[in-house]
Design goal:
alpha+beta; 5 domains; five-stranded mixed beta sheet; three-stranded antiparallel beta sheet; 17 strands; elongated
């Protein structure tokens, strides 16, 4: 049953009397989007507020706001109790806060704010000028905002540029640098305010030149990415002598020598890069000579073995491509002649593609396998499970290139892998590469059992051919 206004009044009468008020009038109001009918009462506040109120106040209030609740444990009451304090009393409440921040209260006034025109007290504040230009700013601030800690909207929040500069001063001095200028920059999509400094380095480079550069404070300070911090990029470049010492070991291992060195400037997008170049000589009988940039010469993730004489490499590449075609063709013809079966460049289920696949069928076991001992020396391999033999030929004498063939999924429980070295030299021989494979930690023990490195003579023996087609190159 819906209550009448009189019944609603009876519900709140005791609260009103206890707060020294009286109900003057009552009416229904329709509140919210659903136009909910709500009882409202006109209350006169007779409460004595000393000098906070200069006269008795009347106000309309919702019945459910008067009754105590979780949000308002004592219930709402006269809104004029706070807003009608004298301006001096309000000023006293924030004066100590303003004084602590070295500010000054210049003026105060009431303002009507928002759709409901709520009456709020504002103060005109002047800051002390804690900024780079030492300019004092004035702004109107709501009393409650000042009490919550907000301050001058013009002055920088947090540390000033001077304070940031003091924090990096020792770092700059330790590198014989000087701070020439400082400014704020707004970085990223969120326009993050970041301190930047114009630095002059100490000239720690080959030509003792001093460079100037802008850098952020966070880059100067050492961190996990840059344990020594970022510094002058121009000085960071090594001298030609330092670059030479970096490549000397690699050149010696390749049996070559450095004849000359020089700087070259090359276009790299929107800027020119200063790059070290070296004039090299290989140990081939023809003593090929060529210029090479250091970055292209030394091993790196994209080229783990590095590069060497382009003339020798091109010659070997041409010979290798020709040799692969000839060897694979005659192997297939020979297998066909012996009643065996093989496939050329077959794509395996893992997506890899060895040079040759030989099927270990009955004819292979009868016509070829009994006449060679290479399969029998595969240690701890159950030959009953082996159905295929993958063959991969290589002309390379670079161990890293050869070992990479072990990671192409050629070998499985049903398939063994023979890596055939078409050529060998005094150091890189089949036995040496096999030892590297056996000791390679990234291969598990089961995989190692399925990999056999042999030279070309052993490959011919594996096919039961008593020939020597290739000599050492």
């Amino acid at each position: 049953m819906t209550k009448s206004l009189e019944q609603h009044e009876n519900d709140i009468i005791n609260y009103v009397i206890n707060k020294n008020g009286e109900i003057i009038d009552r009416k229904w109001r329709f509140i919210g989007n659903d136009k909910r009918r709500t009882p409202y009462f006109l209350i006169r506040c007779n409460q004595s507020c000393i000098d906070d109120c200069d006269k008795k106040r009347e106000f309309w209030i919702n019945k459910y706001e008067i009754i105590p609740s979780n949000r308002h444990p004592e219930g709402k009451w006269c809104p004029y109790k706070i807003t009608n304090k004298s301006l001096n009393r309000h000023r006293l409440e924030i004066e100590s806060i303003v004084r602590e921040k070295n500010g000054t209260i210049i003026d105060s006034q009431w303002k009507r704010i928002g759709k409901n025109k709520d009456r709020k007290l504002y103060f005109l504040i002047e800051c002390e000028g804690n900024n780079e230009e030492s300019v004092k700013h004035q702004w109107w601030a709501e009393k409650n905002k000042i009490r919550s800690g907000t301050w001058c909207p013009e002055c920088p929040k947090g540390k000033s540029l001077k304070e940031h500069a003091l924090e990096i001063e020792d770092i700059v001095k330790s590198k014989d640098g000087v701070i020439l200028n400082k400014k704020w920059r707004f970085i990223g999509k969120d326009k993050r305010k970041t301190p930047y400094f114009l630095i002059e380095c100490g000239g720690d480079n080959e030509y003792k030149e001093k460079h100037r550069f802008w850098i952020s404070k966070s880059d100067l300070i050492p961190n996990n990415s840059h344990p020594s911090g970022v510094w002058c990029k121009a000085c960071k470049d090594k001298t030609l002598d330092q670059h030479l010492s970096d490549i000397e070991k690699y050149v010696a291992e390749m049996g070559g020598k450095v004849l000359q060195r020089e700087w070259r400037c090359e276009n790299r997008g929107n800027y020119k890069a200063k790059l070290p170049y070296f004039y090299l000589e290989c140990n081939n009988q023809e003593n090929h000579r060529w210029w090479a940039e250091k970055g292209n010469l030394l091993p790196k993730p994209s080229n783990p073995t590095g590069t060497w004489c382009p003339i020798c490499n091109d010659r070997i590449r041409v010979i290798s491509e020709f040799a692969h075609i000839v060897i694979e063709y005659f192997c297939l013809k020979y297998l066909q002649y012996r009643g065996c079966h093989g496939r050329h460049e077959k794509i395996l289920e893992e997506g890899s593609r060895p040079d040759l696949i030989i099927y270990r069928n009955d004819n292979f076991k009868r016509n070829i396998e009994p006449y060679q001992n290479i399969l029998s020396i595969l240690k701890n391999v159950n030959l009953k499970d082996i159905e295929e033999i993958a063959i991969d030929f290589t002309m390379s004498l670079i161990p890293a290139n050869i070992i990479r063939k072990c990671f192409r999924s050629y070998q499985t429980k049903e398939r063994i892998l023979f890596i055939v070295l078409i050529r060998e030299d005094n150091c890189v021989i089949a036995q040496y590469i096999q030892e590297l494979v056996n000791n390679y930690t990234e291969l598990d023990e089961e995989e190692k059992k399925l990999i056999k490195v042999i030279n070309f003579d052993d490959f011919l023996k594996f096919l039961n051919l008593k020939l020597k087609i290739f000599q050492k190159l």
